[in-house]
């Protein structure tokens, strides 16, 4: 019964999110419900466990959220993000519209630009390319999501928070699990590209074509002078080189902070004349960072309360008994929690403090644990209640879940599950 009550609490969190209730409010209400039905001291659970979980995560990762958001805003405001997107589109051309979108997103997300900044920057150009190639526009969200949160997240060295969090628990670096990580990222990219092209071509054969929306007239036609592609790429190069360099001397959190700070400084030096108002841009980035960090902290704090319940312990114990490689049971547990919370980082924040000592004591390679935990946090986290999925489909692309979500699910849910299983097999065979 305790498991059922916990699942009801998680379902309550998801339902309220679907209904548009603020995630911080949803997480608090769901936490109170879980504490009540599980027989916990509600006051202690909320003022102690919940707040410790909230403030602990916030304190650990806020600077990464802050610098990442400011960097993204600078890249957007200067036109650097658009410059990169247009350069990729120009190289590949309208006939490669889908791949141009995917690669533009991948370059920027691996370079530390915020997912949401990437989505808003690439979408207007994606509409133009899809219109020129007469492709069904309902596949634009799938292209944006595929390029932003799948193979780029798997790549070792990514500055995304999902690749940084495991370092704290496994004593690893952002480059851990390098060989398998690169191989699986390549597999995901190749298979996902063919799959996405197949879906689009199949839709075209069934008579689907590009349809203009009323909202298209709201897409800004940016005629301002953009930075050169060299100027636009240098800050991103700063992130990548910075991650490699600083990781030799500092822990992953510190290395990421320094890498993002280096990129911001480079961007300001070489593209300052393209900025509108520096302090306004930084202020907007800071505001977005606070919201993003608080939202994630709220979900993780809910998980801390849930982890006190007998139901959670039963779920973990059951998953640990799953036959097969230990990496498989860990991946399933992280995947389920990430799916229930609708957040990859939220799933990791809840699962890793509990699971990491268990699997480290089994003598499993920490690099394998790191990389598999990153991959398994994706999958079910991209179910419809995921914040980025909702934003990409509804707010950015102005599509509906009925028309656009299935291709997104194929890329971000099904394919990522397949990739994770293959990674587990490779690590098991090579370990």
UniProtKB/TrEMBL annotation:
One GO CC annotation: plasma membrane
Stored InterPro entries: Glcn_transporter
A single MF term (Gene Ontology): gluconate transmembrane transporter activity
Name this polypeptide is given: Citrate transporter
PANTHER family: BLL7963 PROTEIN, GNT FAMILY GLUCONATE TRANSPORTER
Xref: Pfam families: GntP_permease (PF02447)
Keywords of the record: Membrane, Transmembrane, Transmembrane helix
Species the sequence originates in: Lysinibacillus odysseyi 34hs-1 = NBRC 100172
Bilayer-crossing regions: 58-76, 96-127, 139-157, 177-198, 229-249, 255-275, 287-307, 327-352, 404-430
